[in-house]
Amino acid sequence: MELFSLKGKTAIVTGALGLIGRKHCEALALAGANVVVADTNAEKTAAFAAQLGAQHLGLPIDVTDKASLEAALQTVLARYENIDILVNNAAINDMFENPAMAKELSAFENYPLEAFQKSLDVNVTGVFLCSQVFGSHMAQNGSGSIINIASTYGMVGPDQTIYRNECGEQTFYKSAAYPVTKGAIINFTRFLAAYWGDKGIRVNTLSPGGVENGQNEFFIQNYSAKTLLGRMAVASDYQGALIFLASDASAYMTGANLVVDGGWTAI
Q: Catalytic amino acids?
């Protein structure tokens, strides 16, 4: 089991306060890593890091601001001296403040350009900048693992029928922004793996499926029916895959896309 040990390693998780981000942090901590809980809220990142244990660090960052990331790099190095693992988890997934307007605003014909641009800024540019700032340090040291969190929707087009309720009414459309940005991340992984392969940096994608989180029952049933395992994921379903990619258990794996989706994309 030493292959899976992260003892003495330092891991940065962006978007660490999200549903899956918290589980990523918990798994890394259990595997022995020093975890940098990186998200936008300083108070909440500090509180969650303290829950994980005294050796962990909460750090407010803006993934779209290179100066913010460079300041974070210096803080992490002053505390731990090294960075071994980067989990690029921060992302925007469309939420509409007014549910009554969700169908209209999420339709491709009406989807706001500013919403599309914001997703590009966080989901793609944010991953680029975090990899540039933190990954460059790894490359200088000659080792490291970068894990980019994508999605099944980075590989297949959204099935809009799962957003229809029991009466067959379309309640929402999955917009272009999320599939476009997650597809970009999968190929960015390949770029980085090829670029930094000779520097000892492994770069892989983890593509999760949908997580059950209080959605309408009709959606849960529609989604579950499309998976081979007959259910949506729970947030902890990705912890094993994350530790595998972060650790020496995947030492000969780079440029790959590890799909953990209950069989959603298998048929």
A: 178
Q: What is the DSSP string of 87-151?
A: EE--------S-GGGHHHHHSTTT--HHHHHHHIIIIIIHHHHHHHHHHHHHHHHT-EEEEEE--
Residue 95: pLDDT band with limits 50, 70, 90: confident
Please indicate, yes or no, if residue 66 is contained in any of the structural domains: yes
Per the domain annotation, does 202 fall within a domain?
A: yes
Confirm whether 246 is domain-assigned. Answer: yes
Predicted TM-score (pTM) of this structure: 0.96
Mean pLDDT of the residues in the chain: 96
Which CATH number fits the domain that encloses residue 195?
A: 3.40.50.720
Gap between the Cα atoms of 181 and 40, Å rounded: 20
Of the candidates 76, 71, 54, the residue with the CA atom closest to the CA atom of residue 141: 76
Model confidence at 96: pLDDT above 70: no
What's the one-letter identity of residue 77?
Answer: L
What mean pLDDT comes out for the span 213-230?
A: 96
Distances (CA, A) of 154 to 16, 57, 184, 226, 249: 21, 31, 7, 17, 25
Q: 185 lies in which domain range?
A: 2-97+119-158+176-217+234-260
